[in-house]
Amino acid sequence: MAEQALKSQFDTEGYVVLRGFLSEGEIQTVHAELGRLIRDVVPAMPREHVFLEDKNRPETLKQLQMIHTHDTYFHNLFLGGRIERLAESLLADKVVGKNLQYFSKPAGGGQPTPPHQDGFYFKLTPCEAITMWLALDDVDSENGCVRYVRGSHRRGMRNHEQTSVLGFSQAMTDYGLPIDLENECDVPTRPGDLLVHHALTIHSAGGNLSAHRPRRSMGFIFFASRSRTDDAALHAYQQRLRNELTADGKI
């Protein structure tokens, strides 16, 4: 899709889907580098960057945060290349790379992702940011594909409250309004497909109900340079979250 048409769709729907953004060979490389990262780097990463379903069992890894700050390969994947340029095009601004994440929902056990808006976590004014979701496996409704609410980024921030879902501490409290349900859209993906959504776009995902299929992905977060972070609010939120996860024995 041409750049102008992609930007128009993003502004209208709040998300775009780029099929085959990374080739099969590129995805194989990403998988190999993730294997190396998990084996050699993750054991030394700060505990607040590593989320395990059971902190005493490394094989229950659910989520990694700030990968680009711990590894050169992932730093270069995140910043200075075509992914960053795409973010600049869709936000019509220079961008600041904020977070590179890894997600895993294991077969038969991966929990649903509750409806939320990423911007609630970001504490930005104006809330101009973007999240890119790179599929590493075949993902459909059985193993938890992403579900967007079309046009929801144009209706502002909704109320969120604390959840018990590890890695997704906040969820919308009033999701399920007619305008939400009328505009829901499941987005199945293949390895290498890239989903891109605005920070105000409502999205969720089902749990992994498959008996054997993994559901792995990576997330790339960029803020527009024109946005400013409320540092006090962000610090308070992060400190509260860290205290809650520690008290619950999750980190």
Q: Name the overall outline.
A: globular
Mean pLDDT: 91
- Oligomer state equals single chain
**Can you write the helix and strand succession as a string?**
HEHEEHHEEHEEEEEHEEEEEH
Helix content: 25-40%
Q: Give the radius of gyration.
A: 17 Å
* Total beta strand runs: 15
Taking the sheet with the most strands, its summary is:
7 strands, antiparallel
Give the class from helix and strand content and strand pairing.
alpha+beta
Strand order of the largest sheet: 1-12-7-14-4-3-2
Number of helices: 7
The end-to-end span amounts to 42 Å
- Unreliable stretches covering 5 or more consecutive residues: none
Classify the beta-strand content into a percent band. Answer: 25-35%
Short descriptors:
seven-stranded antiparallel beta sheet; alpha+beta; 251 residues; four-stranded antiparallel beta sheet; 15 strands; globular; single chain
